[in-house]
Amino acid sequence: MALIDDIVAIESFIKAQFPDATTTKQTVPTAPTHNSFVIRFLNDDRETETRYHFRIDREYQIVYFASKAEQVLPKMDALARAFYEADVIGRVRVESFAFSQPAKTESGMYVSIGILETSAREARTQTQYPKMNKVTVNQR
Q1: Cα atoms found within 13 Å of the Cα of residue 100, Cβ hemisphere only
Q2: Is 26 left (phi over 0), alpha (psi -120 to 50) or beta?
């Protein structure tokens, strides 16, 4: 699975939780609108666990904009609860989600930034060997 598939799965999850909110991927708009989320990829870390698979740990930034400070925290708190209730989004497992207090932006909107940590396991490509067609046994 590609990284963009995971971002789209997270975006779909947020849209399902908050159908009235707008979402954007990767680029924070210069003039954000009320009730909007931005999903951004931050970090990728891979680690070998066995000879047959490896683990991918990724971090995503979830940014929420609202016109009033008191609208930000309930939305981010509900999103955090939804992440932990779901446990898995698409193919990735939710490891943690933490978010900041609301801050006022230059445009007058209020913003909270959350960090979603996920993990996924992927199988390594294994060498394929030709199948044996015939086996004979010599009996002595």
Answers
A1: 14
A2: left
Chunked into runs of 10 residues, the chain (140 residues) has average pLDDT values of 88 96 92 94 90 91 95 96 94 95 92 96 84 80
Specify the 3-state DSSP secondary structure of 51: coil
CA 71 vs. chain centroid, Å, equals 23
Contact (CB, 8 A) for 109 and 67: yes
Model-level pTM?
0.84
3-class SS of residue 102: coil
Cα→Cα distances 32→35, 36, 37, 63, Å: 9, 7, 9, 10
CA atoms of 82 and 66, how far apart (whole Å) = 19
